[in-house]
Write a structure and sequence with these properties.
The complex is a heterodimer.
Chain A (H helix, E strand, L loop, with lengths): L1 E9 L8 E8 L4 E6 L5 H8 L2 H5 L3 E8 L2 E2 L12 E4 L12 H12 L3 H14 L15 H13 L5 E5 L7 H18 L2 E5 L3 H4 L5 E5 L6 E4 L1 H7 L5 H9 L8 H16 L13 E12 L2 E12 L3 E5 L6 H9 L6 E6 L9 H7 E4 L12 H12 L5 H9 L14 H13 L5 E5 L7 H16 L3 E5 L3 H7 L2 E6 L2 E7 H7 L6 H6 L7 H9 L2 H7 L1
Parallel strand pairs in A: 3-8, 3-9, 6-7, 7-8, 13-17, 13-18, 15-16, 16-17
Antiparallel strand pairs in A: 1-2, 1-4, 4-5, 9-10, 11-12, 11-14, 18-19
Helix pairs in contact in A: 3-4, 3-5, 5-6, 9-20, 13-15, 14-15
Chain B lengths: L10 H16 L4 H18 L8 H23 L7 E8 L10 E6 H27 L2 H6 L6 H30 L6 H5 L3 H21 L9 H28 L4 H21 L14 H23 L18 H9 L3 H4 L4 H11 L1
Antiparallel strand pairs in B: 1-2
Helix pairs in contact in B: 1-2, 1-4, 1-11, 2-4, 2-12, 3-4, 6-8, 9-10, 11-12
Classes of the chains: A alpha/beta, B mainly alpha.
Chain lengths: 543, 365
């Protein structure tokens, strides 16, 4: 269905090719998962399929890409619209119409599909993607998961044989992500669509994949195969696979369901081991939110929220898209003033302070860390950071070097990798030494390596006495770093408790390891691996 | 042909209706008539608007209208040309140098000028409310969908521009937040400096992403030659502009002038020619809005208001203005009142938008 024949892509002005001599064949009706660390060329690979590279992006493409028997050399993206549907990273930037139905019909109108067929296909897609009740809603009023499904539907109504998706779940909460992925599975099973999808959060999608395409760190290192074959050795692997490796299971299970069949044996081996003690921080009070109520116009965002934040704690704030996580963070950092109730950081209200004073109390790394960066080079960015905070010269750079080494001074912030950009934003926020550090959805777009470094960094900051608050959908990150979890729903605090008990006992936010080993309360692969290592003899006898 | 359950009223019908009421308002400064026009518009909007975010634009434009009235009255009281009449109160006046002759600051304020200014402000406010009503009842997006094939590209550009405006507002808020997070001033001149570049940058990034998405969904893939498209689009556009200017001329002078009518006719001919030439493109329409009986009734209801006001005006021109010398209660010309009341018919005739219907059913159940 989709074939890459010795494809090399070089962007204008780039010294090295983004893809080098890639050969690939994806059969009809398969769901192919593209994995690779950030910057390995996943997006480029996807955009080659419908000819956006090179027709739209510029650059050179050697070799040939064919889809449904048509070569992208002869066909422009618009001429391939009936063969390939493409859903980009940010669905919000892709909408043309204002209501769901019109958006779904847009591609067909361009193709000149006759009205009767158009009507039928729109109904089909509304049903397949479960959008029926939203058909006349304005797109701006939909939730993130709904919008993502509309974007998929809009690419799919033209009845393409193949669908290409770039990180479709990266900004979604676990439940919405599952809905989106279930919709994709339905397109593959019921309609025989070929799907090519790139994703970082493998734990969500691996079980749906028929084949996996792994892009290595070097531009040419591409291999593809069945999920079992690839994940037997791949460095990028979801927790279920890493748990299987630690436990010595072969072949590796790919879904929680498969793994649970072998879990009783592992639970027995772990029975006698002591779990690492639950981390309980009992530092001094850093911030207190009391009876906080907030609303955006008529829509309530927070209702009577009362929470304490202590020194040395890592606190995860979870909840659906739109549950009020970001609003809580914005109040803590003083971007919004409390309508009712109070917000105090070290006894002072951050919203009442001037900007230069507020950053010494609380610092926030926003959802898009790039929005904090506006200078031309890394060194200029660091200098600005020192000046904004009234700090001695070089402070920000020192903090940056302590987080990640080897970022050169004259790189443009836009050219940094996702992980490096996050590190730079974190350094700028940390330089004035705020006791309260807040991060909004920090793992979006990060690969497993960068995520691990981030977890390590957050634990280190908590150990130094910062209070770290992370608003996130990423349950694996929560399992790794959090001491305490606060769950918000419709602006109310549903749960506020130790991470281990919250993560292990709520279905929606359990980590993979917690689900596999339930009812035993284990959170991460690292814990299990350490416990197994501590009992080497029993390990050998059982295997 | 029967109306299906989900089919809303044709957007052009709503815009004609609202436009007719705006024209009626533009011909009178009688606060009684203006107030009635506003009441009719508000009633129809509250009973027939949908649930899209655009439905809120009526409220926004009413607020803007109140602001206009306030400004109009304040400016008149402070700097207005003094008209004779009974002095209401006297403001301290400041003498101005001779080169500013003709401008006064303060001085005696007469009831006549305050009331006259209020009525003029009210007229503008009611016209704004009519525009807001059109937007609430049928968003500009829906109106643009009705644009003939020849103007398709123009309509897409306008649609994209409309949907970008709220995005730009959001992105300004984001950039200001980011500045505060870095400890930089967000207020005053220093706060606004350094805003433009990041906002433009994000707008540009969005445009590129949107262009990619449109390209991937077949935008611009059609068989007619680009040259022919340009010619037909230009013809239609020139025709539309002519039509607009001509209508303005006709309406403004009150008496149908020969030149105005000629421009209207030529413009109309150009528009029709352009549309016919462009009508066989390779695009198709998804559920185009249909023009049925209810649409005619709604347009007729709007025209009734215009007819009533014009008829009342030709009978007694004074019935359409607020009497100032002597000051008196506004007259109530029956023809005009009746015509305007007839414009409320859509609140019973027009189909209820589906989301609203669902809400109503929920409330009943």
């Amino acid at each position: 269905m989709i074939t890459f024949d010795r494809v090399t892509v070089t962007y204008p002005g780039a010294s090295a090719p983004a893809l080098d001599n890639v050969n690939l064949a994806i059969e009809e009706g398969h769901l192919a998962l593209v994995i690779g660390s950030t910057g390995s060329g996943k997006s480029t690979l996807l955009r080659c399929v419908n000819g956006l590279v090179p027709h739209f992006s510029g650059g050179r493409l050697n070799g040939s890409v064919t889809v449904d028997g048509r070569s992208t050399e002869q066909y422009r993206p618009r001429d391939l619209a009936d063969a390939v549907g493409y859903v980009g990273q940010d669905p919000d930037a892709s909408f043309v119409a204002d209501t769901v139905e019109d958006e779904l019909a847009y591609a067909m109108e361009n193709l000149g599909v006759d009205p009767a067929t158009m009507r039928r296909r729109v109904e089909d897609v509304l049903d397949t993607l479960n959008l029926h009740s939203l058909r006349q809603r304005a797109i701006t009023t939909l939730s993130g998961g709904q919008r993502q499904r509309v974007a998929i539907g809009a690419a799919f109504t033209a009845a393409p044989r193949a669908l290409v998706l770039d990180e479709p779940t990266s900004s979604l909460d676990p439940v919405s992500a599952e809905e989106v992925l279930a919709s994709l599975a339905r397109l593959v099973h019921d309609q025989g669509t070929t799907i090519l999808v790139a994703e970082h959060r493998l734990e969500r999608i691996v079980q749906f994949a028929d084949i996996v395409v792994e892009l290595g760190a070097a531009p040419g290192a591409v291999r593809s195969g069945t999920p079992a074959a690839i994940f037997a050795t791949s460095e990028l692997a979801p927790p279920v696979v890493r748990l299987a490796r630690a436990a010595g299971w072969a072949p590796v299970p790919l879904s929680v369901r498969d793994a649970r069949r072998r879990a009783p044996e592992l639970r027995r081996r772990l029975e006698a081991s002591t779990r690492p003690p639950t981390r309980t921080a009992s530092g001094d009070l850093v911030a207190r939110v009391k009876g906080l109520t907030a609303a955006y116009g008529p829509i309530p965002a927070l209702a009577e929220v009362t929470v304490d934040f202590n020194e040395g704690e890592v606190i995860a704030v979870m909840g659906r898209n739109g549950a009020g996580k970001s609003t809580l963070l914005h109040h803590l950092v003083g971007l919004r003033r409390a309508q009712r109730g109070s917000v105090e950081v070290l006894g002072r209200s951050p919203a009442a302070l001037g900007a230069s004073e507020a950053i010494r109390l609380a610092g926030l790394v926003p959802q898009d860390p790039g929005s904090l960066l506006c200078a031309e080079t890394v060194s200029a960015e660091c200098r600005d950071g020192d000046r904004d905070g009234g700090l001695p010269e070089g402070t920000t750079r020192t903090v940056l070097d302590s987080i990640v080494s080897g970022i050169s001074d004259d790189t443009h912030p836009k050219d940094l990798s996702e992980g490096q950009r996050l590190a730079l934003a974190l350094a700028i926020v940390l330089a004035p030494q705020p006791p309260l550090l807040l991060l909004d959805e920090p793992t979006r777009g990060l690969d497993y390596g960068a995520k691990e470094r981030l977890s390590h960094q957050l634990r280190l900051l908590a150990a130094r006495g910062h209070c770290v608050v992370v608003a996130t959908h990423d349950v694996e990150l929560v399992a790794e770093v959090a001491d305490r979890v606060i769950v918000l729903a419709d602006g109310e605090v549903i749960t506020d408790g130790p991470a281990r008990s919250v993560v292990c006992h709520s279905a929606g936010i359990a980590s993979q390891v917690a689900r596999i080993l339930a009812p035993a309360e284990w959170l991460t692969v690292e814990e299990v691996a350490a416990a197994l290592l501590a009992r080497p003899q029993e390990n050998m006898t059982s295997s | 042909m029967l109306r299906t359950r989900l089919q809303p009223l044709h957007p052009i019908a709503w815009w004609c209706w609202a436009g007719a009421l705006a024209v009626s308002a533009s011909r009178t400064t009688n606060p009684l008539l203006l107030g009635l026009i506003f009441a009719v518009v508000a009633w129809v909007v509250t009973t027939r608007r949908g649930s899209s975010p655009w439905a809120l634009s009526f409220g926004a434009l009413v607020r803007l209208g109140l602001f206009v009235i306030a400004i109009r009255v304040v400016v008149q009281v402070l700097f207005g040309n003094r008209v004779p009449g009974s002095t209401w109160f006297t403001l301290p006046s400041a003498p101005l140098p001779s080169w500013a002759a003709g401008v006064t600051i303060g001085g005696p304020v007469t009831a006549q000028e305050a009331i006259g200014a209020f009525c003029q402000g009210l007229q503008i406010a009611v016209i704004l409310a009519c525009f807001g009503a059109a937007n609430s009842l049928a968003s500009s997006f829906r109106l643009l969908r009705c644009v003939p094939a020849g103007l398709y590209e123009v309509a897409v550009a306008v649609t994209v521009a409309i949907s970008f405006t709220p995005q730009v507002v959001l992105s300004i808020a984001r950039v200001r937040d980011a500045r505060r997070l870095r400890g930089r001033p967000t207020r005053g001149l220093r706060g606004w400096r350094g805003l433009a570049v990041p906002v433009l940058e994000s707008a540009l990034e969005r445009s590129v992403a949107l262009a990619a998405s449109m390209d991937a969904r077949g935008f611009g893939r059609r068989s007619t030659s680009p040259r022919r498209r340009q010619v037909t689009a230009a013809t239609t556009l020139v025709g539309l502009v002519g039509l607009g200017v001509g209508l303005f001329e006709v309406l403004d002078s009150g008496s149908a002038s020969g030149i105005g009518l000629a421009v209207v006719l030529v413009g109309g001919a150009l528009v029709i020619g352009g549309l016919v030439a462009a009508s066989h493109g390779s695009r198709s329409r998804y559920r185009p809005d249909r023009w049925l009986g209810a649409e005619w009734v709604v347009v007729a209801a709007g025209l009734a208001a215009v007819a009533g006001v014009v008829a009342a005006g030709s009978g007694d021109p004074n019935s359409l203005v607020q009497p100032l010398y002597p000051l008196a209660l506004p007259p109530g010309p029956l023809l005009a009142l009746g015509g305007i009341l007839a414009a409320a018919v859509p609140s019973a005739i027009a189909p209820v938008p589906a989301p609203l219907r669902a809400k109503l059913q929920e409330a009943v159940a």
